[in-house]
Each structure stands twice: as C-alpha cells, then as structure tokens.
Amino acid sequence: MELTVGNERVAFRPWQPTDGQVFRTPFAFHAETTTIDTMRPWATPAYVLGAGFDGKTGLFVPRDRLPAFWATHADVPIACHEARFHLAVVAAAVPSVDVYDRVDRNAVYDTWLMHRLLALGANGHTAAGVGESTLDRCVAEHLGETLPKSQTDSQGRVVRLSFGRWLRRPSADIEPVYLDCLARVTAATFLLFGRLRAGLERLLAESGGSWGYVSPDWLAAQVQRWGWQTHHIQVRASIVLRAVTANGLTLDLDRRDELTARLQAEATRLREELRLHGYLAGQPGAEAALQSILRRLERTLPGVTFPRTAGGKYATSREALGEQAARVPFLVTLASYQAIESLLGGFVSRVRKRVVHPSFDPLVRSGRTSSFGELNAQNLPREHGVRACIVPSPGHVFISADYATIEMATLAQALKSQFGLDSGLARALNTGRDPHRMVAARMTGKPESEVTNDERQRAKPINFGKPGGMGLAAVRQCAKASYGVDLDDGEAQKLSDACEDEFPELGDFLRPESDEGEAVAQLFGLTPASHHAHTRCRRFLDHPENASRADDPHSILGRMCLKVLKSDLPTTRAGVPYQSTDVDYFWSRVKGGLDHLPDQVRQAVRDRRPSPALLRAVREAADRAPVFTVTGRLRAGASFPARRNTVFQGLAADGAKLALWLLWRAGFRVVNFVHDEVLIEVPASEDLLAKAEQIRGLMIDGMRQVVPDIRIAVEYAACDRWYKGAKAVRSPDEKRLELWTPPGA
C-alpha cells in the first residue's frame, strides 16, 4: 500500500519476523484496538493491528507478530500520541515483554504531551480543554492537515470505530480502507513529532530572558536529562496516573450514607439560621437578599468592607467573603452552609457505587496534576469524615505516605542551585531544624524548644504563603481556610517580618523583576510618541531624558495610567488633577489593549469606569512573564505569585512524579495521588513496616533526582481507612507497623 507523506510517496507493508530490525531511528507507532468501553474508559481494549513509520518506511504489525516486532526494535525510540494508551495496549497484548523499559531509558515520546508542553511554554496554558490536544486537533494545528474521520468500509461502518471486527483474524482479510486509515494516522504522528520537536527546540532556544533561567549549559543539561520541557517526567506521570485510575478507590457505602444523613441534618439547621437573617438559601430571590444583607452589614459594622465584582456587586463566594467571616457571625453560618452544600453536591452525590475511578490530568500550568471525572480525588475535604469513607479493597490495608514540608525543601533547592543564593532555609532543613518552629521562635522571642504546637501552627501560613508572593490579606485568608488559624493584621505582619529575618534570602527571591510602570507602558504601548500623537502635548516627547526614546515604553506614563484606572479624579503627587486629554489618552490606549484583560473588566474599560478591581486586573496583566523550573520547564504568561509558586511547586511536582514512577515500577498498587501524598494498598498479610520503609525509600529516591542538595523527609502510616493526620504506630518491640486509628475511635 502506498500513500503520500509530505511530498513523497511511501509504502506500508506487513512486517515479517524475517525482516529483522527495519527501524534504526525514532519511529511513530500507533495501535488500533477493539472499541473502548465508554462505561469503563480506564479499561485497556484489545490490540488489533498496529503500524510503525520512520519517515521512509511504513510497517503494519499484526497482533501475532507484535512480540517479535517489539523485541527486535527494543532499542529504538518511539513516538505515539497518548503513549500511556498505546503502551498499555501493547503491554496487555504482550505481557511477557517489559514495554515500559523504553520509558526508563527516555526512549518514548508523546506528541500529546509535547503539544501541551509547547502550549505551556508559548502561551501559558496546557491545552487541557476538551478536544484541544486530540491527534486530529494537533495535526490540523501543526501540520495543516486533516485526518480521515468519516471513512466507511464495505458495510458502511465508520472505519476508525470498527477495527475490532478484525480481532484475531488473518491480516490478509482486513479491508484496505482500514489499512489506509491506520497508515495515515501513523504517518501523521511521525510528522507531528518532528514539527513539535522543532517547535520545542525553538521555544527553549529563545527563552534566555525568562525568570529562573540559569545558563545555556544548564538548560542543555536539563533537556538531556528530562527532555524538552520535562517531557520525560510527564510521560512517566501520565502512565502511572492512568493505572491509578484503573485501580480505583473502594468506598464504604454505609459510612457514606451515615455521612449524607449527618450533612443533610446540618444543612437544614444552617438554613434555618440563615432564614433568621432574612436569607432563604436556595430560594428565588436569595441572591438579591444576600446583596441587601451584605450592604446592611457593611453600613452598620465599623471597619467592615466586602469585596465587589467588576460589575459593582458584592462578591459572594466563600473565598471572597472569607477574610471578614471571623468578624461577622452571619458569614460564618453562610460559609458553613456553602461548604456543606458543596460537599453534598460534589462528593456525596457522585459516589453511588462501591468502586469509583477518578481521572487525572498529568499536567497543569504549575507542573502539578489535577483530578476530575467520577471523583476529584485530590480535593476531598478534610472535615466531616469524608476521606474516611474511602477504604482498602478486601484483604488489603492502606499505607499513606507523604513528604514533610516538601515545598520548603524545593524552595531551598531552587534558591541554592537556580538563583545562586546563600540559603539559611537550606541550612536549616539539612540540619534537621523545623522552619515553622524557627519563625515562631523568632516572633515570640522564645527558644525553639519552648515553642508550642499552636505557635508553630500559626507560623505555617506565612512560611508557605510568603514565598509564593502572597500578600498579608491573602495569608490571613489562607490561615483560616487551610490551617484553622485566625491571624489579625498585626500578627500576620510580625510573622512575615520574622520569616524574612530568619530567611533573608527570600527578599531577593521576592524582589520584582521589572518596574511596574514600565510593564504597564509595555502592555498598552504608552510611549512619548503615542502620547504626543493623541494629546498634541510635547512634554514627554521633548524631555531631554527621552531623547532617542520616543517609541520606548515610558514608566511614568505607565504609573499615570494606573492612577486613571483607579480613581475618577486622578492627580499628580502635588494634588494637581490630570488634564482631560491625558485621561482620554490612557483610556483609549487601554481600550486598544482589551485582549490583554479578563472578560469581567472589559466593559468597565469601555465605560471608562475606574475601580480597584480594574486596577488589580491591569496590574496582573502587565505583570505576566515567563518562568523556568530548575528542571528546565518554561511557563509563559505567569503572574508574580504564579512565577514564584511555579519555581518550588513545579519542582516538587516533578520529584513526586518521579517517585510515583519508581513506586509503580516496583509493583506497588497506588490508588490515589495528591501532590505530595500517595495512597497505596498492600496485602494485610504483608510485613507492613518493611513495605512502608520501601515506599519511603523510593519516594526519597524519586525526589532526590531533582532535589539533590536538601534533606528529604517522608512520613507514613498504616490504616484501614484514608485518614488525614494518620501517624505511624509501632508495636511495643518496634518490629511491626500497626494500624493507626483516630483518638476515641
């Protein structure tokens, strides 16, 4: 069979064992299978027919020849679109062959991930939307070609959905239209691989000015080790997370029913409390009533103001109202009600069968993973005993293992090796000191040994929030939401000062990379020349400092623009109102740059309606810039906090993914993965202590691949349910790991 690939005609033929090794350079491989079970999409369908293509030669690989073909070409890299799927199909068809050995050798390329990593580095997103990364979409976007979708066979069946009819039938019987379809898809995958490889190489070659960039030699070393944009790490994660989905989570349905009844009763009680305030939750007119209540509270409670949307209404989400909740009893009740309703509508309503199969996305913008589908297994509440509804499958127990303060360890690694800073945080971690206790001691003036657990807990929000560029208001909100800690402004400031006193390198890490006014001027083209063209005023154009810089963004114009966006009556530092022609210039330039701004503030720009919300949106848009992880992954268009978080969260994610791979390759049955925690089922009859120690060792080994200079700690526990806060319990002779149960259980 012949077809046109690019400008050449190429032939596809069946591979014979007597052919031996045909491919000696990277080739594309595509497997066609029986129909995927839409009710069980995690189940691996049966291999029917595959094909390989290296740019010159095309080979069809029937099922009965797959073991020999795979063994003969074991040393040659392959490219697939969604390698996790194709490797699983081959592994199921050839169980005697270790198909994942290629992954260990970094010899598997995934065009699905390459496309997404290119989008991350070029556009700041991971093309994670429905249909954004399919093979059809990628071929159309990068090659300008269309794959055959509607081909039908002699009986009118859609070819792409009907390969299963040829399972275990002689390859000579397969209708040519099926072979043509497979050949075209495989050839397109090969061409796509080449185009994406060139795009990634070009992206990285032009990235030298990005924040976190170290040197050309550094970047070349990261690409050599981890692939373009950490591709090899993401391949590993995608494969294991597919297996985690297939393993599933077992539920105690009786416990879930008890939880449902308890939550419904609590929701009823809270609805009655809210009714007494004039708010009929879930009823018509409830939103208008809530706006009236917030307006009244703001008017009658001194010092209380509520955030508003760009449209001028009060923001009513839990996050928006969280900062004032502790001061307003109505908001405490409202937040509790919203949390329970979310739980009833999310977890409880979605878990109606004994085993659920959460899906996972191996790559989000920060480099972390996410969960979706039958259950968001990474975002289950800690409260109300939700996680305790998840139990091991019969005959097993859980070993839950997680990294201790891993993001502080990855921050210390980045400070040291990526930014070249002398790191007190690194020294503290490597000598076994507790950063939370250190900051609490600095703030209270106590010796570290006398710091209470409560004082240590109060230091956590600042230690985790400050390095991510979190302001004090956000730290206070995080403290309440994540740690159950109420911090007033003064205490938050003192903790922030103590953190920077203890770890002064954070000052360098958090220093802005550019002038805000210049960034705004760059965003909207605020130059002396454009200012003169609009206003006919020459004061910027003729200023001596602007000689030869008429078309350069001007920081003073940028700062003036910010004042216009904030206030109806912008003035100079001397209190002189801005000229109307200047105000008109700034609004016109911002309107011309609407594409840079989020949808919710665009109407405010058209209406020339200044507000703190509009000011914040423009500041965030102007501040976006690219950032690197120390492993060599570039993220475009990241905000100031996102750039800081990406440095240490992205590095922690890379290490955790490498650890996940080691655990899976060692044969452990991982049933959930939550950023820095793994939940593993082991047979109850096993030596739990030995298994837990093996898990701990593999997790440390994985993280050390990217965090070689900082001490890594892993904590574990054995339990018969998924408990947050479970601790290791040893037998009296210290030789056995026993099941942990909550106090009073």
Automatic annotation (TrEMBL):
Record field: catalytic activity: DNA(n) + a 2'-deoxyribonucleoside 5'-triphosphate = DNA(n+1) + diphosphate
Molecular function as annotated in GO: DNA binding; DNA-directed DNA polymerase activity
Any Gene Ontology biological process: DNA-templated DNA replication
InterPro entries: DNA-dir_DNA_pol_A_palm_dom, DNA/RNA_pol_sf, DNA_polymerase_A, RNaseH-like_sf
Presence of the UniProt keyword ATP-binding in the record: no
Positions of region (Disordered): 442-465
Biased composition (Basic and acidic residues): 445-458
This protein's record includes keyword Nucleotidyltransferase: no
Domain DNA-directed DNA polymerase family A palm: 383-686
Protein keywords: DNA replication
EC nos: 2.7.7.7
UniProt-recorded name of the protein: DNA-directed DNA polymerase
Organism of provenance: Fimbriiglobus ruber
